[in-house]
Specification:
Shape: globular
Number of strands: 3
Oligomer: single chain
Number of helices: 4
Order of helices and strands: HEEHHEH
Number of domains: 1
Strand order of the largest sheet: 1-2-3
Helix content: 40-55%
Mean pLDDT: 82
Structural class: mainly alpha
Strand content: 5-15%
């Protein structure tokens, strides 16, 4: 094999991995967005605003509300701010996709992207108007103070995944920082060979 062929083969590996991870990110995002969109369309077509339906008694209910705030009804009244933030998050994720070599990071970023785009779609297309639309929320769980939707679940679940990956020292390339070679105390930094035991202080 010539040097040019070896170089070409080595370069093909990261490109293949990048396209595979890109597909995983986008696939996860599409699944999250479609699930959220279809659920909200079902709520709009089958429920009246403010209506409640029991699913598992008091434990799980559908409760249709329009949310002008962020996930889990946080900071209501700041709709335009969260529209800008959602757009910024989506752009950031897209710019980072090319760096991903880890399936776990790809799924986490894909879920975060899909959830963010799900609520961003509401803000751009729902009432009361473009850029300030209210998000459709409908999931109410006993003991939890807020009503939420599938996009919120994707966002929060993905953020938990990101935190766990960071705490586990797993980088976007899928490697742990602890996998890096460590210098032992028996190696003289100014020499190429380990110190002889007799030369130790």
């Amino acid at each position: 094999m010539t040097d040019d062929s070896a170089t070409h083969s080595a370069a093909a590996v990261p490109r293949t991995t990048t396209w595979r991870m890109l597909g995983l990110v986008l696939g996860t995002a599409v699944v999250a967005w479609v699930a959220d969109f279809l659920a909200k369309e079902w709520v709009l077509s089958s429920m009246r605003e403010g209506e409640q339906r029991q699913v598992l008694g008091e434990v799980l209910q559908w409760h249709f509300v329009r949310n002008p705030g962020a996930a889990f009804s946080f900071a209501e009244g700041s709709t335009w701010i969260f529209t800008i933030l959602a757009a910024a998050v989506a752009v950031f994720i897209i710019t980072q996709v090319r760096r991903i070599r880890s399936a776990l990071w790809a799924v986490a970023f894909g879920g975060l992207l899909g959830g963010t785009l799900g609520n961003l779609t509401d803000r751009l297309t729902r009432e009361p108007g473009f850029f300030v639309g209210h998000v459709i929320d409908f999931i109410q769980v006993w003991g939890f103070p807020a009503i939420f939707n599938i996009a919120d679940i994707c966002i929060v679940g993905s953020m938990i995944g990101v935190v766990l990956l960071v705490l586990s020292n797993i980088g976007l390339d899928g490697r742990r920082h602890t996998d890096e070679p460590k210098h032992t105390a028996d190696v003289d930094p100014d020499a190429t060979q380990p110190l002889d035991p007799e030369d130790r202080p």
